[in-house]
Design a protein that fits this description.
heterodimer; A: about 325 residues; mainly alpha; Alpha-Beta Plaits; 2 domains; three-stranded antiparallel sheet; globular; B: about 210 residues; alpha+beta; two-stranded antiparallel ribbon
């Protein structure tokens, strides 16, 4: 059962990403409705209107107000009346404004609590950038099979904490929320919105894409040619914040040494370059369950505990352990 | 030796901090300043008065734009410099209808819900040397007809029925700018301190508010 969590994760990632694309179209649809002028719409706009009407018609009676239930993106949004903001947005804005604005800080409370329970789960389960970054990893694998050189450098994990710290200090000095400029989920959320909903003004297809899209593409190239999933591992300020908050998370993946056969597939599949084979999870683990899904012997499971296990030795189903046992018996 | 070790550690720390600034530098490099006339861009209603405070309060989530029924709220791109990703309204393209949705949805301090009469996006200013009725006694009055605040905000001159005059109640929503048929847009929104208003007609703004 728990093996299928990875599929559920991909479903969640796809839904979040699809919502980020659908929501700007919903906004367009609402503006067309508010204008009360279907006949004056351009043919392309009429198409959008008709499609959105078909899609949303069964669920809402008054699109102008009912479709306001879900708005925004993962950086900050409203979800059936609840306002939810990224904890990084809260921290950065508090740094930039050098003050605490409690109505805004409270919107980051639910993600904060979830992060303290589940660690870096946002990075694995929700982040719209993860959806593209993991596809990018698959592309890297494909290129590797085709014989192209893809980068797999190891850098220092602690570097992203420095990026977070520098970002907060720069935000405070400049008086603007600068972490939003280098934080991929925020970039993706607003660039899709600009690209879909605001391109009408310039009358150019996808004219709304801006500098953030360029930055995001450069991070994709960084992941592809320098370090696999490198931005999330070593640079992302949000990942740094969640890693710190998730240091004492209570839901952890742990290895069952009796079932492990030392095949090391978990290490190969881990996007964050961790070491499940030797019980090396730490605060970087984002509970993405990819290792659980790939384990052939069900040797990885979820546990409720605030500490990782120390290295438990080689897996009991592996050759090394059997050789070791054989030596013991012969003595 | 101890001093040498300290220097090495200090040097490495400085290098690491400089390297950590690189992503922000890249993001800045990719968004160079380009010349664009941003003088006439208004902040959405309910915005903080001080624009520096507005920039530091806004997180750039785009929620205000996403709930805007006329879709008038746009966002500064690279031409905005430090204003990047913060919202603006260009009344010549699309103007605010004072529906209060952006104020209600904004999670931060940057847009807060205030009564409609206390909104201050600016004040309309009429160029009487270009406006049709003022120049050649033509019949227009589009700005007066469209104004959502009625004659507290804009009304006709006492002597001529079609010469518009801005009054103290104007909140600067810009619907008059959007509707103005004159190609050179003789009506525009300026900062409240820079606007001139009719001294007669509806009384002063603060009296009207109370």
């Amino acid at each position: 059962m728990i093996r299928h969590l990875n599929k559920l994760r991909w479903l969640v990632l796809s839904i979040v990403f699809a919502m980020l694309i659908v929501l700007p179209f919903i906004h367009l649809y609402q503006t067309y409705i508010a204008a009360h002028a279907y006949d004056l719409l351009a043919p392309a706009e009429k198409q959008i209107y008709d499609v959105m009407e078909t899609l949303t018609g069964p669920f809402v009676s008054d699109p102008e107000t009912d479709l306001d239930a879900i708005k925004g993106n993962t950086w900050s949004g409203t979800f059936f009346g609840y306002r939810i903001s990224d904890p990084l947005a809260v921290v950065s804005q508090s740094a930039a404004g050098m003050s605490l604005y409690w109505p805004f800080i409270l919107t980051g409370l639910i993600p904060l609590i979830l992060t303290m329970l589940f660690g870096r789960f946002y990075c694995g389960w929700i982040c719209p950038a993860t959806f593209i970054y993991e596809l990018n990893t698959n592309l890297a694998v494909l290129l590797h099979k085709l014989g192209l050189h893809t980068g797999n450098r190891k850098l220092d994990y602690r570097f992203k904490y420095l990026v977070l710290g520098v970002g907060l200090v720069l935000s405070a000095v400049m008086g603007a929320v600068l972490t939003a400029v280098v934080y991929p989920p925020a970039i993706i959320g607003r660039e899709i919105y600009y690209g879909v909903a605001l391109s009408g003004y310039s009358h150019v297809v996808l004219g709304g894409f801006g500098a953030g899209a360029v930055f995001f593409i450069s991070t994709l190239l960084f992941d592809l040619f320098v370090s696999r999933r490198g931005f999330c591992r070593y640079l992302c300020p949000g990942g740094a914040l969640y890693s710190l908050l998730g240091h004492f998370r209570i839901f952890r993946i742990q290895r069952v040494v009796e079932n492990c056969n030392d095949c090391a597939k978990c290490n190969a599949v881990c996007e964050f370059g961790l070491d499940p084979l030797r019980d090396g999870f730490g605060q970087e683990c984002n509970n993405c369950t990819a290792c659980i899904a790939i384990c052939p012997t069900d040797a990885l499971k979820f546990s409720v505990t605030i500490k990782d296990q120390p290295f438990q030795g080689v897996g009991h189903l592996g050759k090394a352990y059997k050789r070791h046992q054989g030596q013991d018996e012969s003595k | 030796m101890r001093r040498r070790g300290f220097l090495v550690v200090a040097g490495r720390s400085v290098m690491a901090v400089l390297a950590a600034m690189l992503p922000f530098g890249f993001a800045r490099l990719m968004s160079p300043d380009v010349s664009a006339d941003t003088r006439w861009r208004l902040r959405p209603p309910g915005a903080l008065k001080d624009d520096d405070a507005f920039i530091s309060a806004c997180i750039g989530c785009g929620l205000c734009g996403e709930v805007c029924p006329p879709g008038c709220i746009q966002f500064y791109a690279h031409e905005g410099g430090s204003k990047v990703n913060t919202p603006y309204i260009d009344p010549a393209q699309k103007s605010c209808i004072l529906c209060d949705k952006c104020m209600e949805v904004c999670p931060t301090e940057s847009l807060t819900v205030i009564p409609r009469k206390e909104i201050d996006m600016g004040i309309a200013q009429i160029d009487q040397s270009a406006c049709y009725p003022w120049v050649d006694q033509g019949i227009c009055g589009a700005c007066v007809v469209v104004c959502p605040l009625g004659e507290h905000a804009i009304g006709f001159d006492f002597a001529n029925f079609y010469k518009p005059l801005v009054r103290e109640g104007c909140v600067g929503c810009g619907q008059c700018v959007e509707v103005c048929p004159h190609p050179s847009l003789p009506i525009w929104i300026v900062e409240r301190s820079g606007g001139t208003v009719a001294k007669h007609g509806a009384g002063k703004r603060h009296q009207w508010i109370q």
